[in-house]
Amino acid sequence: MIATLPVARLFRTREPGSDRVAFIELFFDLVFVFAVTQLAHHFIEHVTPSGAIETFVMLVAVWWLWIYTTWVTNWMNPERGPVRWMLILIMLVGLVLSTAIPEAFADRGLQFALAYVVIQVGRSAYVAVCYRRVGSSAASMNLVRITIWFCFSAPLWIAGAVVGGTPQLVLWSLALGIELLGPTVLYRVPFLKKAALEHFDVAGAHMAERAGLFMILALGESIIVTGTLFSRAEITTSSVLALLAAFTSTILFWLLYFSHGAEHGSRFIQRAEQTGRIARLTYTYLHMLLVGGVVLLAVGDDLVLAHPDDPLDAATLAIIVAAPALYLLGNLLFKRSIGRPWLRSHLVGMAALTAMWIAAPAIPGLTPLALSWIVTGIVALVVVIDEYVWPLDEDDTDDDTEAEDSPASLAAE
After folding, report:
1. Burial, 125: exposed, middle or buried (Cβ in 10 Å; 0-12, 13-18, 19+)?
2. Which residue, 300, 313, 294, is CA-closest to 373?
């Protein structure tokens, strides 16, 4: 296929309009939304400390697959045949990985591990070859370094799946730790020349839009999980109130990210001189917190719908409070990384949620439904403060700040 098409045409030109998100990219996301749904169901069925850690490890792995592919489609043109077929093949293997999630720490660990390694190594090696064929040796070597890092962590994925049990969790966590370190050190490899950060620059508008679209899909997944459970539940006053609380929380999460974050981030990264710095910190690392918050939201909504009037247990309390707390933290760091100040509204919200988590066991008769509405009220207060009490005018932000002076750049040094 590549032989019939000039390889240079497989890459985006960086001309105006060339950075738009292609339909195949949205189609591609469906597999990973399914993966997020699987993760939520896995945690719902394993509401234990070990279940939480397992879900976290798989969530990071799924995000890592998606964000690396997003970097690739930022450089390559997904509307070209070979790139499109690459995405379709990743979708197929990603579907294999997603179906393994419920039993990834049981009978399907090897299925999950092999699918993960095939995607990460295969995609990076393919892009390295494409760059080499267009004569971009520096970019090709960057992808070679990335491939080497994935090859280095691959045995840990496979070994963990083979041994199972607690060692599996340890080995998979170690593999992810190695991979998470890679971008920070620019994938340094002994005996190979150090990579330059400018070789990792991206089309800022595309990266910001892709992250925003994934957040919409993830929030939509939360609605799907909640709606599915409600459709199977008996319709009572409590179940209706639980559905309303879940829907309201999802809307508030959407407002927190899109009202004063997503568009500002898009403008900020587009005006930056070194977009790779911002893409690495803001859209590669910090968005993991946001996606984690959305997954916890879906799990918490499920627990409330299933047992709205039961006595509040410690696990349900932790999940209901942790979901907005993690999401607020992610939004706080995300907005700070794109030039905004430390938002007092988010700090107040996290402090209130922490106080609620500490005080809840001492409140007699507190139910999951009542707690969900209290927590929803705290998040609503944050949104109101953002909009009306401590609004931040666009003129007060640092849109014109160069990348090397931005918080994202300083944190990436």
Report:
1. middle
2. 300
The percent of the chain in helix, strand and coil, each rounded to the nearest 5, is 80, 0, 20
Specify which residues 76 forms β-bridges with: 11
Per-residue model confidence as pLDDT tens digits over 336-346: 998 888 888 99
Distance separating alpha carbons of residues 394 and 8, to the nearest angstrom: 39
Q: Residue 76: helix, strand or coil by DSSP?
A: strand
- Say if residues 264 and 394 touch (Cβ distance below 8 Å): yes
Tell me the residue type at 116: Y
Across residues 82-89, what is the average pLDDT?
94
Does 404 have pLDDT greater than 70? no
What is the Cα 50 distance to its own chain's centre?
A: 21
Domain boundaries, the chain: 2-200, 204-412
For residue 105, the SS3 value is: coil
Per residue in 135-183, pLDDT (tens digit) is: 778 888 989 999 999 999 999 999 999 999 999 999 999 999 999 999 8
Residue with tokens 């609380």: 245
- Which of 361, 389, 347, 368 lies closest to 302 in space, CA to CA? 368
Phi-psi region of 41 (alpha: psi -120 to 50; beta: other; left: phi over 0): alpha
For residue 63, CA distances in Å to 17, 284, 288, 351 come to 27, 9, 7, 28
